[in-house]
Predict the 3D structure of the following.
Amino acid sequence: MHLKLVKGLWCVLILELTSVVAAARQALPPPVFTLDPLCQVEAMRPPPLPPGKPAASTLRMIQRLRSTFQANESQSIGFLSHLAVPMLQREMDDAIDIQRKLAAAFELGMHQAQMGRPDLALNTYGLMEELMSSHGLNPSIGAQTQLRMRRAAALLRLGEQENCIITRGPESCLFPISTAAQHRLPRGSRGAISVLEEQLTQTPDNLTARWLLNIARMTLGEYPGRIRPEWLIPPSAFASEHPMARFPDIAGSVGLDVNDLAGGAVVDDFDNDGFLDVVASSWGQDGQLRFYRKNGNGGFDERTSEAGLVGLVSGLHLMQTDYNNDGWLDIWVLRGAWLGPAGKVPNSLLRNNRDGTFTECAASVGLAVVQFVKAVTVADYDNDGRPDLYLSCRSSPNLLFHNDGPVTRTSTR
Ligand SMILES: [Ca+2]
Ligand SMILES: [Ca+2]
Ligand SMILES: [Ca+2]
């Protein structure tokens, strides 16, 4: 397994480094960041669920997903930062050539931030600056900009993890940021402000830096008063043209605040009791599909284990449909798009068993399609009373499936 390190503009720019060794510059030790263990991804993962009793066909799909992801691991490592980081660390440590070492460090920092360790990323970027200084390298303005913006992003991420995730409230992360959502632990945003102001001093037209500076100041309650006029995005730019209600985040108070990657979501009544339930998926290869039943107390109870779904992972997109016309909603789980060549992953159709459980049945109805599926829609295109299926795929032709009923098999059109 080998990860291609030399990629991105950084490597091009690093080759532009002025190789003239300047008068020996004092190499300063990099700043050392540490992230409270409470703010680390491992601590934020939801606890394991009881296994429940998945149906035999569901267990087969679980095993198939597991083996597919394992087989595709080398192709998907660009998306799996926890695997990329140790490889890049070795590459950086072993590199003798300084440009290769810097290129590895730049990629390493990005993956460290993506795996939820912005503190490690910031230390890596500090090491890069120390290396450049000790080797008398004077990076181009483009290279300086790239490194600075990566540092700013890592600092903002540090602030998000320490405030918006760990000390989360109903107003957290809602834009424009209200007084209630201002950061109580300011070091992330404070550091980002310093870096972004340095960037704007050098390149005043950098709109990304300007935007992020305004956001960072907002998180500390320093918007708009403490932003220099030439960098300020005025409050009028954020004002709605129409009256618009604010939507506080109530996920925590109703039992839906699971911490995972983005994915699909369906809100509908899966047990026909008149109350809307929730199904949510996560794009990650270990992202558990979850089923929540609306309870009588205004909240939701997780019923993933009871529904026989533990082990079903990685849904990019979900859609509900009553594919077999029995009056009970079933669930499509679509997978594969945006994973590059590693995205040939099977999709799921979960039949509602009318008793709170679901059974994987994509293969039994002729829908064991393995494609880079990014979206699905269900409609009865030929008015025969049976819902048909259209899959939108990335990097492969779209697929139309006709629902052949009454045994509810499908055929590709
Ligand atoms: Ca319900
Ligand atoms: Ca059904
Ligand atoms: Ca039809």
